[in-house]
Amino acid sequence: MTNKQMVERFYEAFSRRDFETMNSCYAEDIVFSDPVFGFLRGDEVRAMWKMLCMNAKDFMLTFDEITEIDHEYLTCKWVASYTFSGTGRKIVNRAKGFMRINEGLIVEHSDGFRLSTWLAQAFGVTGKLFGWTNFMKRKVQNRARKNLGIFMDEEDKLVGNN
């Protein structure tokens, strides 16, 4: 499989909310970052995708412009539309994914998007007025990390890893 095909496989799986296939595209020690969750590694990344895919409502994703920067690095533009569970508001998130592929697996993945735009959509007037502030950004980031931790703890209990 070429690197471009790997990126296509990942985003096609994402469009179907197929976190198992998404996670199979990753190396064991995957490193991920985005404006909401910040820096994640390994099992945190896999749990994040599982949590997001399982909780997504009215989800639709399109992607295009997969660009190979060199033999390891690729970018891809993507747009996700969904209902944000925290407020019930509709989100249209326009993002750019950056991936590094080594030995046929994604070893680094970061998604870039304007967090203040996302906050304005997710929280309406409050997000528009305060979404640019570090206080609100940190509050949302802390909540996302807390929710991920709770999700991971619950998953551990389900499979008896506790």
TrEMBL record:
<dbReference type="InterPro" id="IPR037401">
    <property type="entry name" value="SnoaL-like"/>
</dbReference>
<dbReference type="Pfam" id="PF12680">
    <property type="entry name" value="SnoaL_2"/>
</dbReference>
<dbReference type="InterPro" id="IPR032710">
    <property type="entry name" value="NTF2-like_dom_sf"/>
</dbReference>
<feature type="domain" description="SnoaL-like">
    <location>
        <begin position="7"/>
        <end position="109"/>
    </location>
</feature>
<protein>
    <submittedName>
        <fullName>Nuclear transport factor 2 family protein</fullName>
    </submittedName>
</protein>
